[in-house]
Amino acid sequence: MAAKTLYQKLWDAHLVDALPGGEALIYIDLHLIHEVTSPQAFAGLRAAGRKLRRPDRTLAVADHNIPTSGQAGGVATIEDPAARAQVEALIRNRGDFAVPGWGMGERENGIVHVVGPEQGRTRPGMTVVCGDSHTATHGAFAALAFGIGTSEVEHVFATQTLRLSPSKSMAINFTGETPQGVTAKDLALAMIGQIGTAGGTGFVLEYRGPAIERLSMEGRMTLCNMSIEAGARAGLVAADARTLQYLNATPLPPSEEEADGLSHWMSDEGASFDKEVGIDVSALAPMVSWGTSPQDVVPVTGHVPRAQDFAEAGRRNAADRALEYMGLQGGERVQDIAIDRVFIGSCTNSRIEDLRAASAVAKQGRVAAKVRAMVVPGSGLVAAQAEAEGLADTFRAAGFEWREPGCSMCLGMNNDRLAPGERCASTSNRNFEGRQGRGGRTHLMSPAMAAASALTGRITDPREFS
Amino acid sequence: MKVFDKLSGIAAPLFKANIDTDAIIPKQYLSTTERTGLGEGLFHEWRRREDGSDNPDFVLNQPQYLGASVLITDENFGCGSSREHAPWALDDFGIRCVIAPGFADIFYNNSLKNGLLPAIVTRQTAETLASLAESHPGPFHIDLEAQTIQAPDQSVHRFEIPPQARANLLAGRDEIGATLEHEAAIAAFEARHDRQPA
């Protein structure tokens, strides 16, 4: 039998039926939903008089627009009437269609891509979808996971399948020893910088190599999470002993039979990819973004590029515009850039390991005067663990705001956003114009770098605090 | 779904790479439970000044492009979030076709589900069409069946679209209905699959 990639195995295991024109009907094992991209899909279901086929394969959370303080006050206290209406619609829809899950303020609630894995609902060999582009996160578990639009959400509600065309496969081979202080976030930013923000369009990425094998599950989630920032709908990491160890600690530990079967979910020896890319991690430093696309990255030890550094005219114009938007000249030392805000959170970097890394830095100082720093845990369970480990106290004592779980300032749908011109050291995933608030300036980085920057008031190499 | 077959209309050039869905429809418009009314927020932060008035420099506010139903843009249009609010906003504003050298995957799919034609051309053609939209007043004619774009200077350019996507747009097909015709296959798959450990 021909050697198969992990992606091919996942595809083959979920093939329900062939469709005309090269499409296929693919079965969906787990459908995660949230308040922002589901209401129109439920409305469509109702209008057509259709049932939600598998509520047991559907799981709901409220995360995108909820406030990160005062959640115990209940949904009625959400200030923004439109946001409140969305959260209320999700409650109503969950009731009408018997969808399990958690709501704002419940201990198990949190960011959809934190909750799924934490609850053991994301499993190797699954297909996982959600009306959210960062669904790629779940690929860390050797699950084919990708974001979908609301029409596709409705399609999954009604049929538990999607009509898909096969993607091409790309192996990203991380070679070399990862230097001290270089994290999964740095690998992600370096990878996007290398292949570009459209480099993965049409591909499913598989992250491979010794540096990936050594990454924790949290680290793998961070890396897979940002696959979409490279244009790929999905990223994958093979299942291994770390995967099993993580699953064993969830509320749904695998049976012996499932545990024995996990080794199937890796690419076969000799499987061929449509494209292969190599990244030598031994040469990497902690990375940070300078512009308004996630591909605009430099090592923290480097300088902001000048527009004329880019040979291609389109890239040069984009750099010119990005520098203007970011309030930078080009050529300045990255570590001379002063910041106003710090955001530690998001589906990229709000898990316990992220908070441990940030707290290890935070305990070495105090948030600089004039800097406002906030930490938003990924879920109620992450928050509880951080409290139990003393991390929350460390943050509070150092002058960070310790908030309640949610997507928060990653996308600024609630009140957590930047004012025009404010510059933010952020552990989130997108530095687009206006992403964290109109006129806001986002620098993407790891939790340790964000914490280090909070203490000094400028973008700072976290290795100074190691 | 709306049928797309032919379209004649003004084309607005917005020739910039990597236009993301946050730019197409910013966060403050996502808190809705409707699919309609989003045209108001389309390209909000470029289209409107901070005081809410129209930004006269933005292409869709310029008199020669009022009522545009075609947008011509550069690589990787629609990158970023999966929000279907992006094609909803374009459609609600009156844009029925976006011409570009490439689209982000999720945006591309979302467009097809809403009868919005994402027409793929070479980068050179996109650049040519964008400059024709500036230099030649008059409508562009788009023919999905023939996969052609006729510019106001009468030049004709081919665009690419997968055959199945083209057929779906031409028929305005209800995909959920079509999938439910595979009920027997889905049920048989589930009977096998539900017994597996994962």
In short:
The complex is a heterodimer of chains A (466) and B (198). With 466 residues, chain A is of the alpha/beta class. In chain A, 30% of the residues lie in helices and 16% in strands.
Can you characterise this structure?
By secondary structure, chain A is α/β, with parallel strands linked by helices. Chain A folds into 2 domains: about 1-285, Aconitase, domain 3 (2-Layer Sandwich), CATH 3.30.499.10; about 285-465, Aconitase, domain 3. Chain A is built from 15 helices and 18 strands. In chain A, strand 12 and strand 13 form a beta hairpin. The radius of gyration of chain A is 21 Å and the shape is globular. The model of chain A has no long low-confidence stretch (mean pLDDT about 95). Helices cover about 30% and strands about 15% of the residues of chain B. Chain B has one domain (about 5-175): Alpha-Beta Barrel (Aconitase, domain 4). In chain B, strand 3 (about 70-75), helix 3 and strand 4 (about 95-100) form a beta-alpha-beta unit. Chain B contains 8 helices and 8 strands. Chain B starts with 5 loop residues before the first strand and ends in a 5-residue tail after the last helix. Classes of the chains: A alpha/beta (about 475), B alpha/beta (about 200). At the A-B interface, helix 2, helix 3, helix 5 and helix 10 of A face helix 4, helix 6, helix 7 and helix 8 of B.
Q: What oligomeric state do the depicted chains represent?
A: heterodimer
The name CATH uses for the topology of chain B is Aconitase, domain 4
For the record, what CATH class of chain B applies? Alpha Beta
In the CATH hierarchy, the architecture of the largest domain in chain A is 2-Layer Sandwich
Distance between the termini of chain B: 36 Å
Highest CATH level, the class of the largest domain in chain A: Alpha Beta
Q: Rg of chain B from C-alpha positions?
A: 19 Å
Strand content of chain A: 15-25%
Mean pLDDT level of chain A: 97
What is the global morphology of chain B?
globular
Number of strands of chain B: 8
How many domains is the backbone of chain A divided into? Answer: 2
What would you give as the CATH superfamily of chain B? Aconitase, domain 4
The largest beta-sheet of chain B arranges its strands as: 1-6-7-8
Rg of chain A, Å, rounded: 21 Å
Low-confidence stretches of chain B: none
The biggest sheet of chain B amounts to: 4 strands, antiparallel
The CATH superfamily of the largest domain in chain A is known as Aconitase, domain 3
